[in-house]
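Please, structure for the following, as tokens.
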Amino acid sequence: MRGALALILIGCAGSQPAGVFPEDETIVEMETVRADAPAEAPTTEMAAPAVAIPSIVATTPSATATVMGAGVRSVELTKTTIVFVTPDIDGERAGIIRKGTRAGVQASREAGAGCDTRWLLLEPRGWVCDDQVTASTEAPTTATTVSLTDEYAADDPLVPGTYGTVRGKNVMAYANAEDARAGVNARPLVGSNSVRSRGSVTIDGQRFWRTSGGDLIPESSIARFSPSSFQGVVLGEWTAMPAWLRSADKPKEPVKTYAEPSARARSTGSLPPRTVVAVEEESGRFVRISDGMWVRRADVRIASVVAPPPGTGPTEKWFDIDLDEQVLVAYEGERPVYATLVSTGKYGHSTPQLVSRIATKHERTTMTSSKNEIYSVADVPWTMFYDQSFALHTAYWHDGFGKPRSHGCVNLAPRDARLLYHWSSPDIPPGWVTVYGNAQNPGSLVRVRTSKNPTPRFRGYARDLVAPTTVAAN
């Protein structure tokens, strides 16, 4: 029997599974030697191990050197591999760590449960088999420091790489240059296909993209994306919650302002789309954004302060998503710290109203569907799944934030996605490309609501972490 090696992901609203491992990196295959399971028994993801746990080998404050030998400061992963919550390849996963990452070692346990040598407890958490690491005299890999207050330079890349969408009919993908040159063994690209480039090659005068999935696709059939540079607002400097101007009729056009709360009133000018304002007063179908300046209520998206879900800790990080306003507010306890525009599910692809918790975070993942709308969206950065197939994630393919347009997920502009991915729980240890949330290391709460349903029901393991009376009342 083999351990479950390919990480199974579901894209937004009914998509098919997709892997998430970075290119040129394979998942470690670990043969299990447990005799209590049949040879062809399937592995159940997140299954609890039913084995006796051996004793931890005692360590000193210099634990890495104690476990690995004098002078050793870290261990380096020789392959991208799964990190387990307990020393058992059939046990719950803590995450996936990238090849080349160096980590300190806290402790070791004897061989068994799928590891022929011994298990190592990495810093800050999680077990790997030590035949997947090599001792290193270098310091552990340092963490990526990302803050909500980070400022971006104009030339900072918005997403990790170049992305595009395949256009035209009868576009073919080839596995290698020989097939492309001969025009054989082609795979037709069906439905909507977004791809990420790993480079380009010229074959008999024709340029091809080499995609992150390994395909060669004619460059002439790919239209490059220009990801949105939109970014939300850090709330520490705001005395009132922000709002964004966005014309309900023509979202890319300036928003007209009026001297009085009436469409018949004198116009005082206009403001650019997505100008950040503070609403000072509401009157009928208009709101006042400064002295003598009114705009239509339909032309503004307003962030508001709301009470946290029952059981939320005093400094706990969580998300509130207002479907009516298409606004996300990030909180620490009762204090709002960040607000931005999002795009949730369009007609026929509604985003469920619920309170859940982030279950998995992925540095990058591909989302596909073979149902009503066939599509493949490659390498979506900074993705946080919170309810089965539903996630908060980067949308590198549009700039329509503030209006529903997704297949059910919560679309974020790239800069927002990156900041919130690193800000939220569970934390991301250095070099980890995937992190799992669980009861011991819970992910941030996610509440998706409307004005008609301000307190939706708890779902998933978020339900298990609140008092039964709270769930019953909710």
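The helical segments are 63-68, 177-182, 414-423, 461-464, 468-473. Residues 1-10, 14-61 have pLDDT under 50 and may be disordered.
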